Amino acid sequence: WVTADGFIRQELLPNGRYDEARGRRRSAYTGRYTVSGNHIDYVDDTGFTATGDVRDGVLFHEHLVLYREGDQRVRREGTGSRG
């Protein structure tokens, strides 16, 4: 999953872990997640919790809107340029 500007990338791994990159900072946030229907519960490795919901193929994760990799709404230029 990736924000439209490409700055934030979130990988949901098949082992129930996630890895989130912010700009050039790889693994900025890591932790575990569980899925129930279209709802995702996150617990990062520091204990912080967050939620997300997938609607119409878009992940709404707290204040973020993320799209599947390759979605036409994701800009190609400037990917990861903010940090």
Highlighted features:
single chain, 83 residues, mainly beta, Lipocalin, 8 strands
How is the secondary structure organized here?
Elements: E1 2-3, E2 8-12, E3 17-22, E4 25-36, E5 39-44, E6 49-55, E7 58-61, E8 64-67
Antiparallel strand pairs: 1-8, 2-3, 3-4, 4-5, 5-6, 6-7, 7-8
What is the class in the CATH system? Mainly Beta
Strand content: over 45%
H and E order: EEEEEEEE
- Helix-residue proportion: under 10%
Q: Which structural category do the helix and sheet elements fall into?
A: mainly beta
Distance between the termini: 19 Å
> If helices are DSSP runs of H or I spanning 4 or more residues, what is the number of helices?
0
Which architecture per CATH?
Beta Barrel
Mean pLDDT: 91
**Sheet of most strands:** 8 strands, antiparallel
What low-confidence regions span 5 or more consecutive residues with pLDDT below 50?
Answer: 77-83
What CATH calls the topology is Lipocalin
CA radius of gyration = 12 Å
Pfam families: Atu4866 (PF11512)
Protein name: Protein Atu4866
InterPro entries: Atu4866-like_sf, Uncharacterised_Atu4866
Provide structural commentary:
With 83 residues, the chain is mostly beta strands. The chain has a single domain, classed as Uncharacterised protein family Atu4866 (Lipocalin, Beta Barrel), CATH 2.40.128.290. Helix content is 0%, strand content 55%. The chain has an eight-stranded antiparallel β-sheet, with no helix packed on it. The radius of gyration is 12 Å and the shape is globular.
